[in-house]
Amino acid sequence: xxxxxxxLCPDSWPLALYHPARRNFSSPDDMHALLVRHFQDVYQxxxxxxxxxxxxxxxxxxxxxxxxxxMNRTDRxxxxxVYCTILQNNIFTTKAYVGRVLFFLQVPVYARDPxxxxxxxxxxxxxxxxxxxxxxxxxxxDSGLLSLQKNTYGENHYPFVTPRRLICxxxxxxxxxxxxxxxxPAS
Length: 187
Description:
- The chain has one helix at residues 29-43, and strands at residues 15-26, 47-50, 53-62, 65-68, 79-88, 91-112, 119-139, 146-152, 160-161, 166-174, 179-183.
- Strands 5-6-7-8-11-10 form a 6-stranded antiparallel barrel.
- By secondary structure, it is mainly β.
- It has 1 helix and 11 strands.
């Protein structure tokens, strides 16, 4: 009997966006420029444009787990652990980063179909994330928890990520000397 190796395919995970929402929101110039840069990286020569009007959402459900954002007034647990793959020195490295979700958005993108060369409208769902810098010693020796700095990366530091890359919700505990991360159990 042959056994098939199971692979994790986050692109196939179900995704749903929940209210509160702001429909047909006109994105500010700086956010629109970041979206254009993001999709130029994604589509390269097939990229045409990003619509100025986007839909913002406060919550997103990915594969059965509900994530909240800063936009949500009832649930302020907007810290998340995010699975990222980054190219450094021509080597792809994958690790988890901690950030705060500011909001989820649905973005209309116009891209050229590689087969027919026609321009198609595609809708992408993204999370705008404020990344928190890890400490030089990433794990606290006393507690075994992830250790963070008090400051964040700038707003232009890869602010958009697909919600399917969110691993879990977490809480950030601030003490006088430390900032630690605790994973929140799935709801």
